[in-house]
Design a protein that fits this description.
- The complex is a heterodimer of chains A (287) and B (499).
- Chain A has 13 helices and no strands.
- Chain A is 73% helix and 0% strand.
- With 287 residues, chain A is an all-alpha fold.
- Chain A folds into two domains: 2-63; 72-286, MetI-like (MetI-like fold).
- Classes of the chains: A mainly alpha (287), B mainly alpha (499).
Chain lengths: 287, 499
């Protein structure tokens, strides 16, 4: 009886391992294909075999030196644009998210519930319904097709994403606040000297998500930048490379560019994975 | 059903029971929702009534400075020695008047017609042609909305100014001195800290979320499209015409058909995408987290890479790999030694839709794995221990502890995901671009969902009015769903034992 139970468990585990291995291969193989073919030397577009025959760094060199015959497709410039936008919007969004979530979590004021509900309802509108209006608003300010416009767009709504960090702040015992208040600390001091130092995970999480945002956003950048190719971010730039006009000369550069963007983002994400899980589950339980 | 009976059900029956309860209660929940809205409106109007009363009472009781504050902002405060605040109030009024006279009113007066003078040609001296720009309906609408919002804000400042003047009058009557600037700054870092923290984010959200939102909601009631395009031509108010054209199968048959078909597909898509990800993701997570499976971190990381890689990269890559000569067909050709050329996106609508759903599993399952793993790790170990002591086997612990716990914790998430899938722009747009194309639809392909159609309407055919109308409809569906679930999940949380 005991033996057969053990046997059954082994069988089940073997089956699970097999399943996981097969699924793991299915999940990862597209990226393996991407990386392999970004080093491919021969051919221009897709080829009818899976393993490249010549290996080369030429695609990456072309990508960063702007070879390929079209000056408008300037990947280093796009990379720099995205980096600048990401840095600025990261700072602004982090500050506003933390401010809003601290206020909702720790301070008690008259319209608190109302503000939170309005925030929730605003989050339910399809995001790009407003984009046309934002576009005209920015146009009226003379800001369309500039990086400033992108920074504004990425960071202005950030305050609405307060739920996860509010959930985190809620878990910090209130007794700490009360003790500090008795010792004469103001709310401002409590925020900077007690809550923030204890919230390192959520600060890291907020910083990383808002930094990653501009690298992965596609639609907003496209609407704001229109045909102003020098100011593109990497996402719309790569989509441009992959469009019918350019795919024949830029296919391999598109693959190389995807790798260049994906690798740092992947590393950042894996670093913050732990915080992501904490954030999602904290938010999930709270509903 | 009593509590004891409920506890004796197995998790699936419980889930079915809850689902039934949810569906049965949905009408009442909706009714309650509207009742709550009604109550809120009543409360709002009684609030206004009370406001008017206070407004009058304060005027009667006020001294000359307070009374003058009804006309000139800040006089009351300056008179009572609260100089900086009074000056700020006064400056607000001056700026507002200047803004309205020189800018706001020139647009606001055309708000009802959205402009009457069209751009046309004139001949200087009867010979030289010259373009004369007329009214720009778009700018009129935009700046009118801006002016109205500013007016509302200034009105709030006006009321605050009166209240403050009266408060200082009372303080003086009681022999108190107004607080100094230094004390006020201190107060903004402590008692009124929420104002300091929230004012900047609220300002940003107001300008870049609420203002555009009001603007777009208004656009849905105008004739803004490519034949009514400022600055060349004017557009005007058309009432509910845009909404009507989505349901009118007689006069705008093609639009109505597109709308009805796309709504159907959007709902199918949202249901299938949500549940496939949820169920498959749960199975994956259970396997990875099963006791005795080694290298848990490795397996998780393998799957999580799909999330980590920017979505546009993985979706554009998938788009390339699923082309006629893409990697998937190459792989199949090498395995079968035949020339396989499956058309994933170009010919059959059914094929394209299936492909989208499967690729979405590839994209979405890792999210479920990630959150489920977190939840699985959070199940208190002593629950299992006591179950083992009571003699429960692995199957029993699974059906009695693990599954109910997971379903309980993740139900709100399920709804969030459902709403997210209704709005899932990236997967459809980057993967198929809406294709395969069809002549039957207006500006949409057969895998387009409502939001991608909305995008096409604004970007390609400039049917702004129609697009805004669709946006409002999508919002109503999403918001109702979220609010009902939000309310019922709160009550659920109070009843259940796990939280």
């Amino acid at each position: 009886m005991i033996k057969s139970y053990k046997f059954r468990r082994h069988l089940a585990n073997t089956f699970i391992y097999l399943f996981l291995i097969v699924m793991g291969i299915i999940w990862v193989s597209p990226f393996v294909y991407l990386v392999m073919h970004s080093f491919r030397g021969e051919g221009l577009i897709a080829v009818d075999y899976l393993i490249p025959k010549q290996w080369t760094l030429q695609n990456y060199i072309d990508l960063f030196t702007g070879a390929g015959g079209n000056a408008a497709l300037n990947f280093p410039r796009w990379f720099l644009n995205t980096f600048i936008v990401a840095c600025f919007s990261c700072v602004i969004s982090t500050i506003s998210v933390l401010m809003v979530s601290y206020a909702f979590s720790r301070l008690r004021f008259k319209a608190r519930k109302k503000f939170m509900n309005v925030g929730m309802i605003l989050g339910m509108f399809p995001g790009f319904m407003t984009m046309i209006a934002i576009y005209y608003l920015l146009k009226a300010m003379g800001l369309t097709q500039t990086l400033v416009a992108l920074v504004i767009c990425y960071s202005c709504g950030a305050g609405l994403g307060f739920q996860i960090s509010k959930g985190f702040f809620d878990t910090i015992p209130r007794a700490l606040d009360e003790a500090a208040t008795i010792d004469g600390a103001t709310k401002n001091q409590i925020f900077w000297k007690i809550i923030l130092p204890m919230s390192k995970p959520i600060v890291v999480y907020t910083v990383l998500t808002s930094f990653i945002g501009p690298w992965t956003d596609f639609i907003l950048a496209k609407i704001i930048m229109g045909d102003n190719r020098p100011y593109y971010t990497v996402a719309i730039g790569l989509q441009l490379m992959q469009s019918a006009d350019f795919i024949n000369t830029y296919y391999k550069q598109f693959l190389a560019g995807s790798v260049v963007v994906a690798v740092p983002i992947t590393i950042l994400f894996l670093m913050m994975q732990k915080y992501y899980v904490e954030g999602v589950t904290a938010g999930g339980v709270k509903g | 059903m009593t509590y004891v009976e409920y506890k004796q059900l197995n998790p699936f029956q419980r889930f079915a029971h809850n689902l039934k309860k949810f569906i049965v209660n949905a009408p009442r929940a909706i009714a309650n929702f509207f009742k709550a809205v009604g109550r809120a409106i009543v409360k709002f109007f009684t609030g206004i009534g009370k406001g008017f009363k206070n407004y009058g009472v304060t005027f009667v009781k006020g001294d000359w400075a307070t009374k003058l504050s009804y006309l000139i902002f800040g006089i009351g405060d300056i008179h009572k020695g609260k100089y900086y605040k009074g000056i700020l109030f006064f400056l607000t009024e001056v700026l507002y008047v200047l803004y309205m006279v020189f800018f706001g009113w020139t647009y606001l007066r055309d708000f009802t017609t959205l402009g009457t003078v069209e751009t046309h040609m004139e001949f200087v001296n009867g010979v030289i042609p010259k373009t004369v720009y007329g009214d720009n309906s778009m700018l009129i609408l935009l700046y009118s909305v801006l002016s109205i919002v500013i007016t509302v804000v200034v009105f709030a400042v006006y009321i605050a100014n009166i209240k403050d003047a009266y408060r200082h009058q009372v303080m003086r009557a009681e022999g108190e001195k107004p607080t100094s600037l230094k004390q006020d700054v201190k107060d903004f870092l402590d008692g009124k800290y929420h104002i300091t923290l929230l004012s900047f984010p609220v300002l940003m959200i107001g300008i870049f979320n609420i203002l555009p939102l009001i603007f777009m909601i208004l656009i849905a009631f105008t004739s803004y499209d490519k034949t009514h395009m400022p600055p060349g031509t004017l557009f005007t108010w058309v009432g509910l015409d845009n909404f009507a054209s989505l349901f009118d199968v007689v006069h705008s048959a093609r639009r109505a058909k597109t709308f009805i078909d796309l709504t159907e597909w959007t709902l199918i898509w949202a249901v299938v995408a949500t549940f496939s990800n949820y169920i498959l993701g749960m199975i994956f997570a259970l396997m990875i987290n099963k006791k005795g499976i080694k290298l848990k971190a490795l397996w998780r990381t393998l799957f999580v890479i799909t999330i980590a890689v920017p979505q546009f990269v993985s979706l554009l890559l998938m788009n390339q790999m699923l082309q006629t000569n893409g990697a998937v067909n190459v792989l199949l050709s090498e395995i079968t030694k035949q020339d396989v050329q499956i058309q994933f996106f170009n010919t059959s609508a059914f094929m394209a839709r299936m492909t989208v759903i499967i690729v979405n599993c590839w994209v979405g399952i890792p999210y479920t794995i990630l959150s489920m793993s977190g939840i699985l790790m959070n199940i208190p170990e002593d629950l299992y221990e006591s179950a083992r002591i009571d003699g429960a086997g692995p199957v029993k612990t699974f059906t009695k502890i693990t599954l109910p716990y997971m379903i309980f914790v993740t139900t709100p998430q399920l709804i969030t995901q459902f709403v997210g899938n209704i709005n899932n722009f990236n997967v459809i747009y980057l993967l198929t671009g809406g294709g395969p194309t069809t002549e039957q639809y207006y500006q949409a392909g057969q895998t387009d969902i409502l939001v991608t159609w909305l995008f096409n309407l604004t970007m390609n055919s400039q049917d702004y009015g129609l697009a805004a109308a669709i946006g409002i409809l999508v919002f109503i569906v999403c918001a109702t769903l979220s609010l009902i679930v939000y309310n019922s999940s709160k009550s659920m949380k109070d009843e259940e034992a796990f939280s």
